């Protein structure tokens, strides 16, 4: 598996998520890799998304 860099948080404030590309790759030669179908990778893929938390949103009151 090859995981890319995390993208910035999807929101400027409050709860959001980050995403990244995750692909299955196979080594062809010493420094050359080729993308292959996911079924050829061993084990579960790394997560493609994760939660992120921006600063509190101004003017938002979450009292119920």
UniProtKB/TrEMBL annotation:
InterPro entries named in the record: TSP1_rpt (IPR000884), TSP1_rpt_sf (IPR036383)
Pfam families documented for this protein: TSP1_ADAMTS
UniProt cross-references to PROSITE patterns, sorted A to Z: TSP1 (PS50092)
Protein name: A disintegrin and metalloproteinase with thrombospondin motifs adt-2
Protein species of origin: Trichonephila inaurata madagascariensis
